[in-house]
Amino acid sequence: RKCILTGDWQNDLGSNMTISAVNGAGQFSGLYLTAVSATEKPILVSPLNGSQHVDNLEQPTFGFTVKWSFSDSTTVFVGQCFTDDHGKETLQTMWLLRDKAKSMDDNWNATTVGTNVFTRI
Ligand SMILES: O=C(O)CCCC[C@@H]1SC[C@H]2[C@@H]1NC(=O)N2C(=O)OCc1ccccc1
Question: What is the ipTM of this complex?
Answer without folding.
Answer: 0.92
